[in-house]
Amino acid sequence: MSDVLSSTRSQILDAAEGLFARKGYDATTIKEIGRASGVNPALLYYYFAGKEDLYKAVLQRLFDTILSQGGAVLDGSVPPAEAIRRLLALQAEWLLARPNSYRLLVREMVDHDARHAQEVMLQMAAGPFQLLCRVIEQGQQSGAFRTDLEPRFAAVSTIAQVVYFFVFRPAVGIFFGQGPAGGADQTARDFARHAGEFALSALSPTGKTA
Amino acid sequence: MSDVLSSTRSQILDAAEGLFARKGYDATTIKEIGRASGVNPALLYYYFAGKEDLYKAVLQRLFDTILSQGGAVLDGSVPPAEAIRRLLALQAEWLLARPNSYRLLVREMVDHDARHAQEVMLQMAAGPFQLLCRVIEQGQQSGAFRTDLEPRFAAVSTIAQVVYFFVFRPAVGIFFGQGPAGGADQTARDFARHAGEFALSALSPTGKTA
DNA sequence: GTCTATAGGTGGATAGAC
DNA sequence: GTCTATCCACCTATAGAC
After folding, report:
1. Which of A84, A101, B72, B174 is deepest in the core (most CB within 10 A)?
2. B134 and B30 in one domain?
3. Closest approach of A1 to chain B, Cα-based (Å)
4. Is the distance from CB of B136 to CB of B203 less than 8 angstroms?
5. Residues of A with CB below 8 A from B113's CB?
6. Do A170 and B207 make contact, defined as CB atoms within 8 angstroms?
7. Same domain membership, residue A155 and residue A65
8. What is the pTM of this model?
9. For B146, which of A125, A176, A201 is closest by C-beta distance?
10. Which domain holds residue B91?
11. Which residues contact A101 (CB under 8 A, 6 or more apart)?
12. Is residue B208 part of a domain?
């Protein structure tokens, strides 16, 4: 602990986050993390119990910041429609700024059935997801949203769009004729705006976007 | 070729598909494929040029069948709204019956930026995806769908819901309080029906589901 | 706290008998 | 077509000097 929060430890976490996100857990080697962080590979075992412990620490650190900023936009102080617009815009900015997050999360789903991220997912369930469901229910009770949609299903449909866009960006890029790179960041922002209108149109009893 | 299509070759492909889908490309070993298929590991190099060649063959075989059945439901012989309902129901049945497909596809996105699946994605872009865009445009021109949504964006929002539900099933299961297993298959079918209504409500100028 | 060296195990791929 | 045996590279993790 020569630094405020042990600079060496942070360097290892930074490098590991990028490598785990890009290459996956199994394909990432200790020596690579050492090389990428500029830290001797053996030091990893000084700061962490092993490779898996490091992996869990990476997940924890990344999603701590998500959860801390998460529910702010859904706190009930804005009308439901505006809350949903802001949520999807925030989703896009967040995913643009932290491409590691959705890559790690997707890998965690298919590699380990979310086993290592179970705690974080429980916090998401009790936090942002439940808040979104409440926002939708609130809109339904006030007459702003149609009442024949199941709130939890509607919440999943709402958040699915932008996440899908990012995860399948290579495919979407090909679908849009932009190649596997998937177009500029502005395309993602444009899509997020569209996704907000799409969700609000789906939720609205009149088809107008409230 | 002692069999119609070389039974040994098929056995290798079957075992490799399951292992690549469950564990990923890197984590799957040649010896495991041999064990799971009941074929001597060295024979893999008789039938395929190597591990990567086998992987591409797996992708090709799996998505050949997708594409052959793909556009049938979108061929323009049914009204746009009904075509979209059928598409999402088909999507759910397809993903339920072939869990390897979305796992492999998602891995291909994050592991290789869809590099190995580029041909298949190009066929999807020129086939089912373009047909869905046409269906949406057709609905817009006939007045059944609102015209202020970009057809390609709307197509992505439409197909995103069910795919997200499957890929993030462990997370959705936790969100729904069903645990990481993600509930019964009927939940997926219920969600697919919801997704159809959600998309049609979003597309409809009146908010009714046509 | 940081390093070198290495143990112990497993990976993909090949040679060559049958 | 199928098998055994094996090469060589690389992995995680540890021992121990500094």
Report:
1. A84
2. no
3. 35
4. yes
5. 170, 180
6. no
7. yes
8. 0.93
9. A201
10. 52-203
11. A21, A62, A63, A66, A94, A95
12. no
